[in-house]
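wait is this the right file?? whatever heres the structure
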C-alpha cells in the first residue's frame, strides 16, 4: 500500500504586513477532500505538523463564508470529525523520515505561510523526497511550504540561491486570487510572487477554477476548487510509480 505524509500547518494565526495577527489555520476543504480521495484510493495517509502540534482549521473554511455550500461545508466538518483522533496527535515533522513514505502532500489555508514556509524539518523532507523522485504535492497556499526547501547550502531564499524547486513548473493560489478573495494587500507576502522570485515557473489558470500542474514528481493545485483533482493526480502518480 502506498503511504503519503500529509503535512498540515499548526499555525492558528498569521502575522500580517502591519504586524497584527489574523486568525487562520488549515483550509477545511483542502484537508478533508484531499485526505478522502487518497484514502478511498487505498493510500495510507499519516498527518504531521511542526512539533506534532494539533492543527487548527481556519474558522472561515468551516462554513459558507468559505464559498462552499452549506451542504458541502457540513460534509467537510463531518469528515474532519472522523479524523479527530489523527488530528489530535499528529506526527512531529522532526521525527519523520522521507524513506518511510512514497510522497508528501501539503494542503493550504494561510497557515503554511506562517510556519511551514520556514520549517527546516519540512525543507529537509522536501529535499529528500525530490532527490529520490518521490511525489511532492502542494495545494493552494500549500506551496508556501515549498519555500522551506532552500537546499543544503542554506543560502538566502530572497535570492533563490539553493532553492530546490527553482526552474520547476507549478501552480499556486495566485496573487489575483489573494487580492480578489483572500486577504489582499495585508498578507505578509504573496506566495505566487515569492515563488516566482525564487525561480519557480508559475503556470496558473483562471481564478477560482480547478487547475493542477504536473512537472515530473511535482504536483500542485491552484486553489480549494482543485482539491479533488490534485489528490487524484497524486493517486495516478503513485500508480505510475508502482506504489499504489
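ok assuming it is, sequence goes like this
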Amino acid at each position: 500500500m502506498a503511504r503519503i505524509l500529509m503535512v498540515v500547518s499548526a499555525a492558528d494565526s498569521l502575522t500580517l504586513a502591519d504586524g497584527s495577527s489574523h486568525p487562520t489555520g488549515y483550509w477545511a476543504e483542502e484537508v478533508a477532500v484531499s485526505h478522502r480521495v487518497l484514502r478511498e484510493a487505498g493510500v495510507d495517509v499519516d498527518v504531521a505538523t511542526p512539533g506534532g502540534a494539533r492543527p487548527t482549521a481556519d474558522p472561515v473554511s468551516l462554513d459558507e463564508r468559505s464559498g462552499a455550500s452549506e451542504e458541502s461545508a457540513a460534509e467537510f466538518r463531518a469528515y474532519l470529525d472522523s479524523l479527530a483522533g489523527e488530528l489530535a496527535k499528529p506526527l512531529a515533522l522532526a521525527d519523520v523520515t522521507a524513506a518511510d513514505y512514497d510522497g508528501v502532500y501539503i494542503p493550504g489555508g494561510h497557515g503554511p505561510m506562517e510556519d511551514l514556509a520556514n520549517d527546516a524539518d519540512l525543507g529537509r523532507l522536501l529535499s529528500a523526497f525530490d532527490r529520490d523522485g518521490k511525489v511532492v504535492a502542494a495545494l493552494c497556499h500549500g506551496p508556501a511550504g515549498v519555500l522551506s526547501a532552500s537546499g543544503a547550502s542554506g543560502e538566502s531564499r530572497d535570492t533563490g540561491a539553493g532553492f530546490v524547486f527553482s526552474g520547476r513548473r507549478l501552480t499556486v493560489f495566485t496573487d489575483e486570487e489573494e487580492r480578489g478573495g483572500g486577504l489582499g494587500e495585508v498578507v505578509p507576502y504573496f506566495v505566487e510572487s515569492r515563488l516566482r522570485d525564487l525561480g519557480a515557473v508559475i503556470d496558473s489558470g483562471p481564478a477560482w477554477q480547478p487547475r493542477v500542474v504536473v512537472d515530473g514528481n511535482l504536483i500542485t493545485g491552484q486553489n480549494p476548487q482543485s482539491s479533488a483533482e490534485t489528490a487524484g493526480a497524486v493517486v495516478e502518480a503513485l500508480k505510475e510509480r508502482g506504489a499504489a
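Residues 227-240 form the longest helix (14 residues). so i think its the right one actually
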